[in-house]
Amino acid sequence: MSFENKTLIVYLDGDYRRFKAVADLYQRFDSGDAHILITSFNDQNELRGQIDLLNSNYDFIDERHILTEYYSTTTYNNAIEIEEILKRLNYGHVIVVTSQYHIFRTKMIFKDRFKYNDKFKFVGVHHDTTFIEYASEVVKLGLYLMRNYKFFTKDKLLYSKSKYRTKSRLTYQ
């Protein structure tokens, strides 16, 4: 299926505060011109238990425009899963929304994975960032630069305990 005239807005899991930016971006498009992809939409996703995704704050989002994926556990895995989705649904533009402190590594991973594809844009959301978040990002950047991410993408290590593994890769809400 081709959506080459549409934009996919990607919510990288990790912080529910990013979703407001995703919703704001979605509102800038005419009806049907943008879809939202929520990554890592499993039981640990902050949007699931704590926030009703389509509550009165986000009732302008058409449920049919929300895609979910369940398998990602790292930013590198996000890129792999998004690559699989884009093979099936050819979006013309992709906007990746993440936290500002995470944007450098996110750009690096996506540019490596997609060979500097110009269809990608990145938006960093500013919020109070803790020392632990910065420190974690530095460690993850170091692991990525040492190419240790490949260890964590092996199917048995990554997905063996996931109850979502049997579900289809791409699901409409």
What does this structure look like?
With 173 residues, this protein is α/β, with parallel strands linked by helices. The chain is 34% helix and 21% strand. It contains 6 helices and 6 strands. It has helices at residues 18-27, 46-49, 75-88, 103-113, 131-145, 155-159, and strands spanning 2-11, 34-38, 66-68, 90-99, 120-125, 171-172. It has a 6-stranded mixed beta sheet. β2, α2 (46-49) and β3 (66-68) form a beta-alpha-beta unit. α3 (75-88) packs across α4. It is globular. Mean pLDDT is 76; it is low at 154-173.
* Average residue-wise pLDDT: 76
Distance between the termini: 18 Å
Q: What's the total number of strands?
A: 6
Shape, per Cα inertia axes? globular
Tally of individual helices: 6
What letter string, H or E per element, gives the SSE order? EHEHEHEHEHHE
Unreliable parts: 154-173
The structural class is alpha/beta
Helix coverage percent of residues?
25-40%
Supply Rg.
16 Å
Describe the largest sheet.
6 strands, mixed
Query: In which order are the strands of the major sheet placed?
Result: 5-4-1-2-3-6
Strand content: 15-25%
For the structure shown, list the relevant keywords.
173 residues; alpha/beta; 6 strands; globular; disordered C terminus
What's the structural blueprint in terms of helices and strands?
Elements (H helix, E strand, L loop, with lengths): L1 E10 L6 H10 L6 E5 L7 H4 L16 E3 L6 H14 L1 E10 L3 H11 L6 E6 L5 H15 L9 H5 L11 E2 L1
Parallel strand pairs: 1-2, 1-4, 2-3, 4-5
Antiparallel strand pairs: 3-6
